[in-house]
Amino acid sequence: MELVVEFFDFSGVTNHVEVIAHGRKFVGYTVAGMDRRGLINAFGRNTWPYWLTTDTPITLTAGLEPDGTGVPTAFSMTLERQLNAELAKAMRFGTVAGVATPVFYHIEMLEGQSGNLILDTVPVHSVAGSGNFPFPFPEPYLALRGTLLTGNMYNDSGLADLTTDFVLHGRALPLSMPGQRTLEPLLDGRSVDLPPASNRDLSIPRMVSM
Known about the structure:
The protein is mostly beta strands.
């Protein structure tokens, strides 16, 4: 698909413009005979608030590459193995020379295990807000226990001594519910055939062993 964008500048000064298409990516998550959202909501009756942040505060490397982009600084975010998570909002916090201030940089992010791209090198202020005004996702991101998110941040602000935390906010999901299986077959993209049940309540997850 190709998007064609035309700009008209009436300001009389040079402007730097980036175009970002924002939405959701469709992946073949299928579970025979069961609605995916209904299953998540069934687990959602036993959830609690959760914040996932960078494994350590990130000090962004100062300076620019020859092409004008920032020097990449690697980061990672690791979801603990005691829970799954449905992450719905993003925030970022930062300091310059130890003073709290809005920080600006580009960020790319992918799933460490699968390599699926989540953020394709976008300005951080287009995907992450503040604690008072977090940025909502088009659709919650569902992460299994132990999920590793990794990528790079590019400091193209021209500032040195820039340190940041990137935070994803949502709800923690239990690994399982009493008498039920886990979410893993649903979230890893495999199709699961459910055993017949004449009185099956689709609001309650019933998973088969994988």
